[in-house]
Amino acid sequence: MNTLSDTWSWLTTAAHWSGPDGVWNRLGEHLFLTAVCLLISCLIALPVALVLGHLGKGGALAVNLSNIGRAVPTFAVLVLLLLTPIGSYGQWSTIIALVLFAVPPLLTNAYVGMREVDRDVVRAARGMGMTGRQLLLGVELPLALPLILTGVRIAAVQLVATATLAALAGGGGLGRIITAGFNLASTPQVVAGAILVAAFALLVESLFEAGQRLAPQRGRRTA
């Protein structure tokens, strides 16, 4: 009970929320790192998945390779990158490790979403004279959007949780609160940092779920 009350006391102390080491600043750093990694991951994974899903060729191999990547611990990748020349370029080692971690769910869900589009609808669109580009952007993509957003949601939540590793590489984010707590032997601060990361992940999850509820309706209207 003392730990819980001390944690609550830490969270409700105004001094812990302001300044360069305060919660708001660390939350901003965490959000920025998550957004950058998610954007890069989407730019890498989604075009590949959409094209392969549209063509129906090579997708299974790409998905299997990306799923193999899930078996590699992100922390291990981060440590290896820190030992290479990349480790001397600021947070790039962290960004690369997190991007590699986020690509598999994006690639898998986008490809599966494209392949699960009703083939009768696709054939009808082709019969209407649609080009491959029109078919991809006007029919397949809107209908696959809910599953694509599921992949984006999964990747975003995973990134929020895993971005705490940035603190181990000297980066910012909420992970710095946790590592500072360990350095100070302050259990309440460590628990408070973990609670903040969990709350942030739940918030991101809720926002994406709200977006997914709108996606099926929008997809059907567009198609």
From TrEMBL:
<feature type="transmembrane region" description="Helical">
    <location>
        <begin position="67"/>
        <end position="86"/>
    </location>
</feature>
<keyword id="KW-0812">Transmembrane</keyword>
<dbReference type="Pfam" id="PF00528">
    <property type="entry name" value="BPD_transp_1"/>
</dbReference>
<dbReference type="InterPro" id="IPR051204">
    <property type="entry name" value="ABC_transp_perm/SBD"/>
</dbReference>
<protein>
    <submittedName>
        <fullName>ABC transporter permease</fullName>
    </submittedName>
</protein>
<dbReference type="InterPro" id="IPR035906">
    <property type="entry name" value="MetI-like_sf"/>
</dbReference>
<keyword id="KW-1133">Transmembrane helix</keyword>
<keyword id="KW-0813">Transport</keyword>
<keyword id="KW-0472">Membrane</keyword>
<feature type="transmembrane region" description="Helical">
    <location>
        <begin position="31"/>
        <end position="55"/>
    </location>
</feature>
<feature type="transmembrane region" description="Helical">
    <location>
        <begin position="135"/>
        <end position="156"/>
    </location>
</feature>
<feature type="transmembrane region" description="Helical">
    <location>
        <begin position="92"/>
        <end position="114"/>
    </location>
</feature>
<feature type="transmembrane region" description="Helical">
    <location>
        <begin position="190"/>
        <end position="208"/>
    </location>
</feature>
<comment type="similarity">
    <text>Belongs to the binding-protein-dependent transport system permease family.</text>
</comment>
<dbReference type="InterPro" id="IPR000515">
    <property type="entry name" value="MetI-like"/>
</dbReference>
<feature type="domain" description="ABC transmembrane type-1">
    <location>
        <begin position="27"/>
        <end position="208"/>
    </location>
</feature>
